[in-house]
Design a protein that fits this description.
5-stranded mixed sheet; 4-stranded antiparallel sheet; WD40_rpt; repeat; WD40_repeat_dom_sf; WD40/YVTN_repeat-like_dom_sf; WD repeat
């Protein structure tokens, strides 16, 4: 069934590099290569979407990354040397004070962002000068740096236990999210393959790192590396995602999304299509429950699935 959307959702055309469901909610935040940032609410029962907030970034800066995993932090958005935090009001809305927009002082391009919501909330940035930078959410001040990568960083993910980073040096580095020590807990070397995608499972047992073909999966409890899933005609991976049941999803340049229940074989292969529309390059996968999945990329549309086996609708933004 085709999803309808309010006119404000359909008034621009651009690729979507990053999007995310709010934690446990119905709303979706999306950011684009033309500097458009939008939050809309997905009505699953009536197949509708309604805009809650939208804005253009200064100079139409292309948004490279977005994070909305911590409701008590807000929405993080990185656009080259710009880093913004969008905070909701006490009612969970974005309506007053320009969506409570906070700009951070950043001197280097930020390729990815993540946050730790427990304790004193902080933001982690994967920067192009090979450093992981840490900012305090309340003061917007730089409070730490990690310097274990030798080439520009591409991706970072975090939860309340770990911070995981990857870059052009092929290394995956794991830190203690409490920042008690700037030294890595462990690191994995993937040689010359740039790490283009990362995620941490909800139980903090697994890390998935993507480069091409299928992701490399690490066990954080025993430092073991699972055998890599074999794929015919491997393509570059743009995004990997663990859902709440620790099912692994990934996508890239093939117009397909892969699902692995046991992390050792492909359970399902889904075409990133709805009707005549196809997302040939999948840049972002997000979920709000085990069966409610969304994908976005080189298209004006965001795909939605309630079954995890095919996409039943698309919101064109």
């Amino acid at each position: 069934m085709k999803i309808t959307a309010s006119p404000a959702v359909t008034n621009f055309y651009t690729d979507i590099l990053a999007h995310s469901f709010e934690p446990g909610g119905q709303r979706v935040a999306a950011a684009t290569t033309m500097g458009k940032f939008i939050v809309f609410e997905r009505d699953w029962d009536n197949n509708e979407a309604f805009t809650k907030m939208e804005m253009m970034l200064p100079n139409n800066a292309p948004a490279l990354c977005l994070d909305w995993k911590n409701g008590n932090v807000g929405i993080l958005l990185g656009a080259k040397s710009l880093l913004y935090l969008f905070r909701q009001d006490r009612n969970g809305d974005f309506d007053d004070d320009a969506a409570r927009l906070t700009k951070f002082d950043v001197k280097y391009d930020v390729h990815d962002v993540a946050s730790r919501g427990s304790g004193s909330p902080v933001i982690f940035g994967a920067c192009d000068d090979c450093k992981v930078r840490v900012w305090d959410v309340e003061t917007q001040k730089l409070v730490g740096e990690m310097t274990d990568h030798k080439m520009p960083l591409e991706v970072c993910k975090a939860n309340d236990e770990y911070v995981v980073t990857g870059g052009q040096d092929g290394n995956v580095v794991v830190y203690d999210a409490s920042l008690r020590s700037p030294k890595p807990i462990v690191s994995f070397d993937q040689g010359k393959s740039t790490i283009t995608a990362l995620d941490i499972s909800s139980d903090s047992t697994w890390i998935a790192a993507g480069s091409a073909g299928a992701p490399i999966v690490y066990n954080l409890k025993n430092s073991a590396i699972l055998p890599q899933i074999s794929l015919e005609n491997p393509n570059k991976i743009h995004t990997v995602h663990f859902d709440q049941m620790n099912t692994l999803w990934w996508g890239g340049g093939s117009g397909r999304i892969f699902k692995s229940l046991n992390l050792t074989e492909i359970s399902t292969e889904i075409k990133a299509t709805y009707g005549a529309a196809t997302i040939f390059h999948v840049y972002s996968i997000t979920s709000t429950s085990p069966n409610r999945l969304s994908a976005a990329g080189s298209s004006t549309g965001i795909l939605f699935s309630e079954n995890g086996d095919f996409f039943e609708g698309m919101v064109h933004i």
